[in-house]
Each structure stands twice: as C-alpha cells, then as structure tokens.
Write a structure and sequence with these properties.
Blueprint lengths: L2 E2 L7 H11 L8 H14 L3 E5 L2 H11 L7 E4 L6 H7 L4 E4 L22 E5 L10 H11 L2 E5 L7 E2 L2 E2 L8 E5 L12 E5 L2 H11 L3 E2 L14 E2 L10 H11 L2 H19 L5 E2 L7 E2 L5 E5 L7 H10 L2 E2 L11 H5 L8 H9 E4 L7 H18 L2
Parallel strand pairs: 1-16, 3-4, 3-5, 5-6, 6-9
Antiparallel strand pairs: 2-10, 7-8, 7-14, 9-10, 11-12, 13-15, 15-17
The structure holds pyridoxal-5'-phosphate.
The site of pyridoxal-5'-phosphate has 15 residues, from helix 3 and helix 4.
Length: 382
C-alpha cells in the first residue's frame, strides 16, 4: 500500500452537494458559482472572488488583469510550480527569478529589489508549502517602485499572515488559489482570484468568458439578445458541478487545516532531534496551512537523495519533490535562463523531499510514515 504525499478528502456531504447540482437545470455558470464566490470572499476577507477552471487559468487571468504585457517582466520565485512563471510567458512577458531563503523556501525578499528594472510591472510572491511570504516587505517594495502584487497562494488557502487570512489582499492587488485535489480544498480542477478592486474583478470576469460583456456595453445594444466581445479572453469557466463541491469543501476547510497542523506537529516532534534532515519552521508572523511537509536533507546527505527517495517509495511512501526550480526546465533553458542563477533554490531542490501530508491521514499512517523515514534514513546516512 502506498501512502501518497497528498490526497483529497471527500465525504458524503460533498458527494450529496454535487449530486444535487447534477439534477438542476444549470450545471455550469448558475447560482452555485456565485454562492461559491461569495463564500470564498467572505472566508478570505476580500471584497470579490472570481472562480476559474484551474489555478493556472486564475494566474493567467490575474496577470492579464494587472496589465502585464509584452516587453514587461515580473519577479517571482524559482521554487514553484511552472505555472507561476508560464502564466506570464503566455502574455509575452518575462519572469525574473529572485533566489529564495532556505529557511522557508520562499522568495528572499532582500533579493527582490536588485532584480527590479524599468520594465518590471509585477511582483508574484509564492507562499511555498503554505508558509506565507513576509507580505509587508513585498508591499513596501511595490509602493516604492509602483508595482502590482499578485500572491500565488495556491498552497496557502487557510494560511494566515499576522493573524489574518491569506486572500484578504491587504498587501496585494490579487491573490490566486488552486483547487486541485492535492490542495487544501478541491473542486477536481479549479482556481480563484481574490481582490478588493471592482475594476480588476470586471476584467477577470471578462477574461474568463471570451472577453464577452453582457452588461455595460461599448456599442449601442441591438436588442435584448445583445452581448459584445470587448477583449480577447478564454473559456476559463468553472462549472456549477465543481463549485458545489468547492462550497461543501470550504465548510470543512478549518478542520482540514487543523488536521494538517496536527500532523505537522507529530512530524516535528518525531524528527526534532534527527541529524539527517531539517524540518519546516514557521516564522513568528506565520500560520501555515501545511499544504506540503518538506524535509530537507543536510548538505552532507544530498548525494544520497536518489537512493533515499526510491527506498521510501519501495517502502510504501508516495514521496515527491517540490520543486525542480523553474529556470532549470529545458523550455526555460531554451529561453536563455542559465543554471546557477538561483543557487539557494537549486540547493534547496537537491535536498527536498515532500512526505505524506493531507487532512485524512490517519494516526497509524502518520506513525508508519515516521517509522519508515527513520529506518530508511538510518540505512543510507551512516
Ligand atoms: C504554486 C502553484 N502555482 C500554480 C499552480 C497551478 O494550479 P492548477 O494546478 O490548479 O492549475 C499550482 C498547482 O499545482 C501551484 O502549486
């Protein structure tokens, strides 16, 4: 039996909510979408939420709404899923990777300023593994240079910064979430953008639906049937079927996060005096939703990672690695990004292993994970 590194938690209430919508007249873009958006904005404490067909679509839309375009660049972390950077490439802009700090795996805020140039439009901090970036620091920089800020919070629904929910956009223009099954709550595939700005909300709604407006027209309407396309958008809509799952899951979010934090506590305790790897830490300002629990092999054991990884898998743990730094992928190499531009991220990658972390992980499974990791480490790290 393999214990995966992540897994969704679906119960009868979730399934019942989906079934109910399946029997309705509207299975996409009906009332449930709007209810899910209201519930999300209420939970996060932002004025507006716009849901999308994926976190990637939500990122793409938010970058578009921020005005990012050709010849612009944006600064983000290399220690992220490729989509964070790709969404900017899709708009003809260029990501600049600022190196990370090894303590949290987040972008090193002190390294951002040196990367800002006259074409920089946007800062995209990624709350890696659910641990928030120091948003006040990012906010200060953005004001100094007149930049927009979009939080890639795909890992951080349920996380808090200085006691306030990630997603309230107090220090950013927009915040992006993903509802992929590995994430805090799921809609199968799905994502959302939170914002306090009504103009941004309007752009997001247009971009989600081919750029088509159904109210507030540029031309004079021809009749009641009238709609018009005002910008080039996509079909990035979420269905009501998915939104019903999201709405039901959102009610369980607090419990999910508490369960994740309890598991993190068990891991922290079990591994606190080990000499093989470091475990995640939380800064004073942070409350992490623990999307991931990433252990990091000490430098002297990095050379053993391949063997440790495959032995963990052989022994029933579906471990993973987050992340291969984005600039190291062949596609980015072809674009001219060099290896060694972010040495700390590259070293972080060499030692990182994500171990099982999800709300429905049972106590005996947690004990099995701990036992297995301890014995595999002892075997390879003599
Ligand atoms: C940091 C980060 N950004 C963006 C995404 C993209 O989200 P999605 O898979 O919902 O498109 C993910 C999801 O894997 C992610 O982890």
């Amino acid at each position: 039996v393999i214990i995966p590194y992540a897994h969704q938690s679906i119960n009868e209430a979730d399934a019942g909510a989906v079934l109910k919508v399946l029997k309705c007249d509207h299975i996409t873009q009906g009332a449930v979408i709007v209810n899910f958006e209201k519930a999300l904005s209420l939970y996060c404490g932002a004025r507006h939420a716009v849901v999308f067909s994926s976190g990637t679509a939500a990122l793409h839309a938010s970058y578009y709404a921020s005005g990012l375009g050709q010849h612009d660049n944006f600064i983000t972390s290399p220690n992220t899923f490729a989509a964070t950077a790709n969404a900017g490439l899709l708009l003809g802009s260029r990501p600049i990777f600022a190196d990370i700090e090894s303590k949290t795996g987040n972008i090193d805020v002190t390294k951002v300023e040196a990367n800002i140039n006259k074409n920089t439009k946007l800062l995209v901090p990624v709350h890696y593994a659910g641990h928030p970036v120091d948003l006040k620091e990012i906010f200060t920089l953005s004001k100094k240079y007149g930049l927009k800020v979009i939080e890639d919070a795909c890992h951080a629904l349920g996380s808090k910064y200085e006691g306030e929910n990630i997603g309230n956009c107090r220090y950013s223009d927009m915040t992006v979430f993903s509802f992929h099954p590995a994430k805090a709550i799921t809609t199968g595939e799905g994502g959302a953008v939170l914002t306090n700005d009504a103009l941004l909300r309007n752009k997001l709604l247009l971009f989600r639906n081919h750029g088509i407006a159904k109210t507030e027209f540029i031309n004079k309407p021809h009749g009641e049937w009238y709609y018009e396309m005002q910008l080039l958008g996509y079909n990035y809509r979420l269905t009501d079927i998915q939104a019903s799952l999201g709405l039901s899951q959102l009610k369980r979010l607090k419990k999910f996060v508490l369960a994740r934090r309890r598991i993190a506590g068990s891991y922290n305790l079990a591994f606190c005096d080990n000499s093989f790897f470091d475990t995640p830490v939380e800064n004073d300002y942070a409350y992490s939703a623990y999307h991931l629990y990433v252990i990091r092999l000490k430098d002297r054991y990095i050379g053993k990672k391949c063997r440790i990884f495959s032995d963990l898998r052989k022994n029933g743990l579906g471990v993973q690695v987050h992340y291969i730094p984005v600039h190291m992928h062949p596609y980015y190499r072809k674009l001219g990004y060099k290896e060694a531009i972010c040495p700390i991220a590259e070293n972080f990658y060499k030692g990182a292993i994500s171990i099982p972390m999800y709300a429905s992980l049972k106590d005996d499974e947690v004990r099995f994970v701990i036992r297995t990791i301890k014995s595999v480490m002892k075997k390879w790290c003599k």
